[in-house]
Amino acid sequence: MRRVTRNVVIAIALVVVALLALGALPSYLGSGDPYYLTVEPIETNDTAADVNNVSDRRYPYLIGAIESSDGRSAGYQTGPYGMKEWFTHTPFDEVDALTRQVPNASTETGVRVRRDGEVYHAEVVRP
User: Fold this and answer.
1) Of 13, 39, 40, 80, most Cβ neighbours within 10 A?
2) What is the pTM of this model?
3) Around Cβ 42, how many Cβ atoms within 10 Å?
4) What pLDDT digit, counting tens, does each position of 108-120 carry?
5) What is the 3-state secondary structure (H, E, C) of the chain?
6) Helix axes 91-101, 60-67, angle to 10 degrees
7) Distance from CA of residue 69 to its chain's centroid?
């Protein structure tokens, strides 16, 4: 194999390895106290985002909080320098997506959601 060809193959392999690391590594990074998505049942006739047909793959923090006994999702730790947020799914993404889908369901601190006839106020907190 020619030297130039070998160097190109090595460079391509390094780029592939770096891209794979960027995809896998951020989920293992985390620093500081965790954030949680919390849900609290509320009574209101205001607009709420319907989440009856959403998947726990699309909204893992929201569905996890609704199905948990304490109304709190699994923790999410931010990464150093804000890089983790570029590559991973966050509870902030879920609240933001629901707020964009149903703008009237937003509140000052979160979003109102409806699931199985129950209305919840969902927000991201850091204890």
Assistant:
1) 39
2) 0.76
3) 13
4) 999 999 999 899 9
5) CCHHHHHHHHHHHHHHHHHHHHHHHHHHCCEEEEEEEEEEEECCCCCCEECCCCCCCCCHHHHHHHHCCCCECCCEEECHHHCHHHHCCCHHHHHHHHHHHCHHHECCCEEEEEECCEEEEEEEECC
6) 100
7) 20
